[in-house]
Design a protein that fits this description.
This protein is mainly alpha-helical. Helices cover 77% and strands 0% of the residues. It contains 19 helices and no strands. Helix 4 packs parallel to helix 8 (153-181).
């Protein structure tokens, strides 16, 4: 009987995955026809086939299947994003990335928290906890967007790098405020900064070492005996980088992002793959990243709880509007304007103000708060769902339009130079 039950569960999971793949392929084609990032269409598709509408799939947020997809999917998407970055561009903008992914998170959390306090009428500490939960941007959303829409290199790479690095800071601020909210201690700036430094350094070292090792094994002139198995090496190394950092209490997401940067810039270390092998690896990474994001965002849409959202619908919309139109612009201008090395133009900063989608990381944090019965967890979860829907469905589809209007699309730059 137990074996039969196990087979039925396996069949149900297989059917669910097959359905998600089928819906994802169809909606992916639709997004191409519409000319908008596919993450927005995947999210809508997930809502439609989820338990709130058609009820075709039901995968709870705390299920092992969902957690595996989130962990590996977000890790692989981050690796893909890191691999697209280039050292020569990062040298110009590293100060902005550092400031906006640390101090910027605190600024966003503070402004959003104050808005929540006055608009929702919730206790101040709960409002700050909400602000901290929403403060980090989402790499699983932003990386695919910039893969599909070719924005000026330094702008795209700054936004992608910020989203990869600020998840650690967002988690630290969230759990620091949570300790105060639950009466388990007081927030310590010194210990939080030390924890951030530890997570960053260990994550960077773990990702850098594994990235160099992977490049050595697939692209070195003498030692590339795994070049033929480069796709499998990337899978193994992404998982290894995440768990190496996680086991040392550091950011696994940061580790896989740095791993991607090192592997993507392997030529800078004197490594070069054969053209055929490099093309095979690129095609594999692109296909795998597509599958991961369709699973992540269809499941995320399917888990949107409209009954929970309705509890704070009007106030939540106003708070998220403040997050998008006040907190983000203030954060960008305060963090990017003083960077004389990067010399950001007004149009570039304006574009960065608009690209701050909320997705997997804030959803995971709000889910953890619900599981811990944190003060105001229901309110935080409801506003987080509103933020996910508003930012992905409003900001993601308008990214290409805004980039074109501001003259930041690479296509428009090429046309202008001819």
């Amino acid at each position: 009987m137990e074996a039969a039950a196990g087979v039925e569960i396996a069949k149900h999971i297989l059917l669910t995955c097959g359905l998600i793949l089928a819906v994802g392929i169809i909606t992916g084609l639709l997004s191409q026809k519409l000319g908008i990032p596919d993450v927005a269409v995947f999210l809508i598709a997930g809502v439609l086939i989820g338990p709130q509408v058609l009820g075709l799939i039901h995968v709870s947020a705390d299920s092992p299947l969902n957690q595996i997809i989130l962990l590996f999917g977000a890790s692989y998407i981050l690796f893909d994003g890191g691999a697209s970055l280039r050292f020569n561009v990062l040298k110009q903008v590293w100060i902005t990335i550092l400031v906006i992914s640390t101090i910027g998170v605190v600024i966003t959390a503070a402004i959003t928290g104050l808005a929540a306090y006055y608009i929702l009428g919730i206790p101040f500490i709960v409002a700050l906890l909400l602000g901290a939960t929403l403060a980090s941007t989402d790499p699983a959303t932003l990386v695919p967007i910039f893969r599909q829409i070719k924005i000026r290199d330094r702008v795209a790479q700054t936004v992608m790098s910020e989203s990869a690095f600020n998840d650690a800071m967002g988690a630290i601020v969230t759990f620091g405020v949570l300790a105060v909210a639950m009466g388990n201690g007081e927030f310590s700036l010194t210990s939080s900064l030390l924890e951030l430094c530890k997570q960053s350094i260990v994550g960077i070292v773990a990702g850098g070492v594994l990235g160099y090792l992977a490049a050595l094994l697939i692209a070195h002139e003498r030692w590339a005996f795994l070049a033929e198995y480069a796709p499998a090496v990337t899978l193994m190394a992404v998982i290894g980088a995440y768990f190496a950092a996680d086991g040392l209490q550091a950011s696994g997401f940061m580790a896989v992002f740095v791993f991607g940067i090192v592997l993507g810039n392997k030529e800078a270390f004197g490594f070069k793959m054969q053209a055929g092998e490099a093309q095979k690896l690129d095609e594999y990474v692109m296909t795998t990243a597509f599958i991961m994001r369709l699973f992540i965002f269809i499941l995320l849409g399917a888990q949107v709880d409209f009954s929970l959202m309705s509890q704070n619908l009007t106030g939540g919309i106003v708070v998220v509007t403040v997050l998008m139109l006040v907190a983000r612009p203030v954060t960008v201008f305060l963090c990017a304007l003083p960077d004389r090395r990067a010399q950001w133009s007004f149009n570039e900063m304006l574009f960065m103000c608009w690209t701050r989608e909320t997705g997997v990381i804030p959803a995971a944090l709000s889910g953890l708060l619900l599981g811990m019965n944190a003060p105001g967890a229901q309110t935080i979860a409801s506003v987080t769902f509103i933020a996910i829907l508003m930012t992905i469905l409003i900001q993601a589809p308008t990214t290409r339009w805004l980039g074109s209007k501001l003259g930041l699309l690479e296509e428009s730059q090429k046309l202008r130079s001819r």
